[in-house]
Write a structure and sequence with these properties.
The chain is mainly alpha-helical and 397 residues long. It has 15 helices and four strands. The protein has helices at residues 2-17, 19-51, 67-75, 88-92, 106-112, 128-155, 176-198, 201-214, 217-221, 227-259, 277-303, 308-331, 347-358, 363-388, 391-394, and strands spanning 56-61, 79-83, 98-101, 120-123. Helix 2 (19-51) packs parallel to helix 10 (227-259) and helix 11 runs antiparallel to helix 13. The model has no long low-confidence stretch (mean pLDDT 81).
């Protein structure tokens, strides 16, 4: 065990001297991940809020056929109307983002209470700003339609409230912690697994292909340390950097959520992004076999490379392998799997991480994930040790 510790200490000192590793382990999780998650959402939210306030430039064709509607639209706040027979050039040149095409018989059909005429709303739905303004215009049209209905009901002596015999209200049974946990369960498992891979990636490359380039691997193998001890020490260094990056990533994201919380459809402060100490410890326990498995695979794969650059090329495809099941778990948040599903490599770990943030993790499922993940990690470790016993791999040039 002392030899393993010495190898680990050596590799950690080399790691701390490597700026690429420090970036992957510290700056990436602390700075990149919160910006990656929060900034796009804040930008989109800000754009929506701005578009809800700006003046709508509305192009109208056939306005002379609906004088009542035109008068209603002109009386509305934050709207400017351009009348034109040809709407396409105005919309194409973005002189207006929304257009209305009113049929000739619109006013006549309203007066005679015939089958409703169709007003066509035109917009470029590939543009978010046009989509927001289109919703605002449709809301105005709906308000106008409701006013006509109220007039018709009043003319017949019918109380308009008969159209709404009851009202509906909403009561959220989820606690603020559960609301926040839903968002965390959707986002964090993917980032935990991703940083379990990326956090120790440069360390894994450095302790294998990097040592080959520096010609320090052969002297290490000539020491009394056995191959298992060498691999264990190097693996311990990779796991250390992976867990450090993982802890920093989760902590920075939780801090970022507390400073600029995602709204999750709630604007009344009813979402809390916190996790208990017990949940945090269980998350780390579930992430440990993931880091161990990835670390062993990275060492085995990178040892086969001749250079640092070649090792990077071997590792990058693993990130896509990680993202596929991670995206699946993120896109099916209500998926309720059977017990056997929790034993699937990586996918089961993602599921139990999701359950931990939701507060629905079961002890049996957690045990299956730990046992199966430990088995897969042990297989990865055996594979890494086997690679270190192959002379054609160790001295591949």
């Amino acid at each position: 065990m002392k030899i393993v510790f010495i190898v680990w200490l050596k590799e950690m000192l080399d790691t701390l001297r490597d700026r690429r590793t420090l970036w992957a382990m510290v700056l990436g999780p602390v700075l990149v991940m919160p910006l990656f998650v929060i900034l796009p959402q804040k930008l989109v939210s800000q754009q929506y809020k701005e578009q809800e306030k700006v003046v709508i430039i509305l192009a109208v064709s056939g306005g002379e056929y609906a004088p009542g509607l035109m008068a209603f639209l002109r009386s509305a706040e934050a709207i400017e109307i351009i009348e034109s027979e040809d709407l396409d050039p105005l919309l194409r040149d973005e002189k207006a983002l929304v257009g209305l095409r009113i049929p000739e018989n619109f006013e006549t059909d309203l007066a005679q209470e015939k089958k409703p005429s169709q007003i066509v709303v035109l917009s470029d739905q590939s543009k978010m700003t046009a989509g927001v303004q289109m919703v605002r215009v449709e809301t105005l049209l709906m308000t106008y339609a409701q006013g006509i209905v109220a007039q018709r009901m009043a003319a017949r002596g019918v109380d308009v409230t008969l159209l709404a015999p009851f009202e509906t209200g909403h009561e959220n049974l989820a606690t603020p912690q559960q609301m926040g946990g839903t968002y965390l369960a959707m986002m964090l498992p993917m980032f935990i697994v991703l940083w379990g891979l990326v956090g120790g990636m440069y360390t894994a490359i450095d302790v294998t292909a990097g040592e080959k380039e520096r010609l320090t691997l052969e002297p290490l193998l000539m020491t009394p340390a056995g191959r298992v001890q060498v691999v264990s020490g190097k693996l311990l260094a990779v796991i250390t950097t992976s867990l450090a990056a993982l802890i920093l990533a989760i902590t920075s994201m939780l801090v970022a959520f507390s400073i600029a919380p995602p709204e999750m459809g709630a604007t009344d402060g009813s979402v809390v992004y916190t996790i208990s100490l017990q949940t945090a410890l269980l998350v780390l326990l579930a992430a440990l076999p993931i880091a161990l498995l990835f670390g062993a695979l990275e060492i085995a794969v990178c040892l086969f490379a001749r250079s640092f650059k070649e090792a990077q090329n071997y590792i990058v495809p693993l990130q896509f392998v990680v993202l596929i099941p991670a995206m699946a778990v993120m896109l099916i948040p209500d998926f309720t799997p059977g017990l056997a599903v929790y034993a699937i490599p990586l996918f089961g770990s993602l599921l139990i991480l999701r359950d931990l943030f939701l507060g629905t993790a079961g002890g049996l499922e957690f045990g299956v994930v730990l046992a199966s993940s430990a088995l897969y990690a042990a297989i990865g470790l055996v594979f890494a040790v086997w690679q270190f016993h192959r002379e054609q791999v160790l001295f591949r040039t």
